[in-house]
Amino acid sequence: MNIILTGFEPFNGSSTNPSAEVIKNFPVDSFSEHNLIREILPVDSVKAVAWLRESIQAIRPEIIILLGEATNRPVVSIEKVAINWMDFRIADNSGGQVRDQSVVEDGPAAYFSTLPVNLIHNQLRAAHIPVEISLSAGAYLCNQVFYSSLYYADLIDNISLCGFIHLPSLPKQVVEKNQIAPSMSLGTCMTAITIALQACIQHFPG
Fold it and tell me: What is the CA radius of gyration of the chain?
């Protein structure tokens, strides 16, 4: 089975990103029977989407799980909906700040995640990991790559399980910023995404 698992590089002045740390430390040996492609995407609205478009077309993956950081969210957030809209509250790492623009001109207004969202949610709760089903992936790069991946998979009739999961900040980030804010350990984040991927493999048709 071909699987794409992505995270994002640090952004907005942070020294790290929980999604990137999960990608770097993911237990690949537990999924050795699959072709697991891990990638840390640039926080760049052009380059990130270009990598996903080319990879989806070339690999035609069965599973695509996209990860990102949701600062100030206290739980793992399984995103349900990707909207065809970009309105960046801050610039990306290349200095670009897209405002009031479609992700894909003339594309559908929205896509629903094709991940087994409820199954993942229930399994994380059973593992005592704080989790929610979110109805907003925002209007920054997280939503952009979420929408774009579903769009490009649909364009080539690639039947894949595709969706986005937001992770809370790491404790290290909260300490560095000297803030009172929620966080989650890297170990818990790793366990959550391992469970999510296992659920997708089990759920995949056929």
Answer: 16
Find the length of the chain: 206
Report the CATH number that the domain containing residue 196 is assigned in CATH: 3.40.630.20
**Per the residue annotation, which of 142, 162, 189, 200 is the catalytic one?**
142
Active site residue 79: yes
Taking residues 71-93, report their average pLDDT: 97
Catalytic residue, chosen from 21, 62, 162, 166, is 166
Q: Is the pLDDT of residue 113 over 80?
A: yes
For the cut 80, the answer to whether the pLDDT of residue 134 exceeds it is yes
Q: Is the pLDDT of residue 11 over 80?
A: yes
Active site residue 142: yes
Q: Which domain covers residue 173, as residue numbers? A: 2-203
What is the distance between the alpha carbons of residues 102 and 98, in angstroms, rounded to a whole number?
A: 10
pLDDT in the model for residue 158 = 75
Q: What are phi and psi of 55, to 5 degrees?
A: -70, -40
Domain count, the chain: 1
Q: Which of 21, 69, 79, 121 is catalytic?
A: 79
